[in-house]
UniProtKB/TrEMBL annotation:
Matching PANTHER family: GOLGI APPARATUS MEMBRANE PROTEIN TVP38-RELATED, OS07G0655900 PROTEIN
InterPro entries: TMEM64, VTT_dom
Membrane spanning residue stretches: 6-30, 51-70, 76-101, 163-181
A Pfam family recorded for this sequence: VTT_dom
Assigned keywords, A-Z: Cell membrane, Membrane, Transmembrane, Transmembrane helix
GO cellular component: plasma membrane
Protein name: VTT domain-containing protein
Domain VTT, residue spans: 65-183
Predominant subcellular localization, coarse grouping: membrane
Gene source species: Aquilegia coerulea (Rocky mountain columbine)
Length: 212
């Protein structure tokens, strides 16, 4: 089978991206970097802070780095209404960026990984009949890793509009819960190690809000 230069270029770019992810996860103190980033937003950006916070989701989601620190930070810095809007939009554009990457230069790699997720085969078939509903359910009930799901969905027939809307709606409950937790933290440093300080009553409230 002939190999085109375009395919070689796509595979090379994908390998570089994977190497970058692995190196970053092993060598960089991701949580500390994100905490310092939140402090920088708080001290320097003023009204531009929510916008910059939302945009920051793009590289994190593409690199499959959990963004819960940003979500908590949004609640702490901007409160529930504004923090929720910034985090919700950020999570959606980040998921969309990963989706588009998987649909373009990363498509061959994503297809090769489908064998590692046999349960996704049935999902791919169901999406052909009802893409919006299936994506919404997958976001509400995380049967697959969130960051990998962005890429797996990219090789299904679901349209970009359906994907964005379903992802936005489906991620709302967990985003709201994390933003709420962020509003209860006493200090910005707690976004990385303050979970133990949250009272049982607050956890019950959070769970209630998610399943209400």
């Amino acid at each position: 089978m002939a190999v085109t230069w375009g395919a070689v270029l796509r595979i090379s770019l994908l390998l570089i991206l994977l190497a970058t992810i692995i190196t970053a996860l092993i060598t960089l103190p991701i949580e500390k970097i994100l905490k310092d980033f939140l402090i920088w937003i708080d001290q320097n950006l003023g009204p531009w802070g929510p916008l910059v916070l939302a945009v920051a989701y793009i590289p994190l989601t593409v690199l499959a780095v959990p963004a819960s620190v940003l979500t908590l930070g949004g609640g702490y810095l901007f409160g529930l209404p504004l923090g929720f809007v910034a985090d919700s939009i950020g999570a959606t554009i980040g998921a969309t960026a990963a989706f588009l990457l998987g649909r373009t230069i990363g498509r061959s790699y994503v297809i090769s990984k489908l064998k590692d997720y046999p349960q996704f085969q049935a999902v791919a078939i169901a999406i052909q009949r009802s893409g919006f509903k299936i994506v919404l359910l997958l976001r509400l009930v995380p049967l697959l890793p969130f960051n990998m799901l962005n890429y797996l969905l990219s090789v299904t027939p679901v349209g970009i509009g359906e994907y964005m809307l379903a992802s936005w709606l489906g991620m709302m409950p967990i985003t709201f819960a994390l933003v709420y937790v962020g509003t209860t933290l006493k200090d910005l440093s707690d976004v990385t190690h303050g979970w133990g300080e949250i009272s049982t009553t607050r956890w019950v409230s959070i769970i209630y809000l998610i399943f209400l």
